[in-house]
Amino acid sequence: MSLLDETHSSNTQTSLEYWQDELKNSRILLFEIDKAIKAISISNHQSYTLDTGQTSQTVTRVNLPSLISQRDKLIDRISQLEKYLGEGKPSVIQTRPGW
Predict the structure, then answer these.
(1) What is the greatest pairwise CA distance in the chain?
(2) Tally of domains within the chain
(3) Range(s) of the domain holding residue 30
(4) For residue range 1-47, what is the model confidence (pLDDT) as tens digits?
(5) How far is CA 68 from its chain centroid?
(6) Helix, strand or coil for residue 56?
(7) Strand residues in 1-99 grouped as ranges (E)
(8) What sign results for the dihedral spanned by CA atoms 9, 14, 19, 23?
(9) Which helix (H) or strand (E) covers residue 85, if one does?
(10) What is the pTM of this model?
């Protein structure tokens, strides 16, 4: 299921398209979670409504550790999906001298 295109038929979706949609959806969710974390931790707001386009959830300051944990898991998932799809670049590149 895709957050980006609700009319997209899963019967005709290839495996590659599925994982590309998962990556896009994870990035959208990460963006929304980051907005919620910033709104709650930086400002005087006690609550924030997290809206992904399909669902809406209100979080409060008490939920901040849970949101941070969820964000960390999403970052790991995005990294795994990028590796699977061949996107992104490694954070460490190992080089060896030619002599």
Answers:
(1) 60
(2) 1
(3) 15-85
(4) 445 555 555 556 788 899 999 999 999 999 988 888 887 777 666 77
(5) 12
(6) strand
(7) 47-51, 56-60
(8) negative
(9) helix 64-85
(10) 0.63
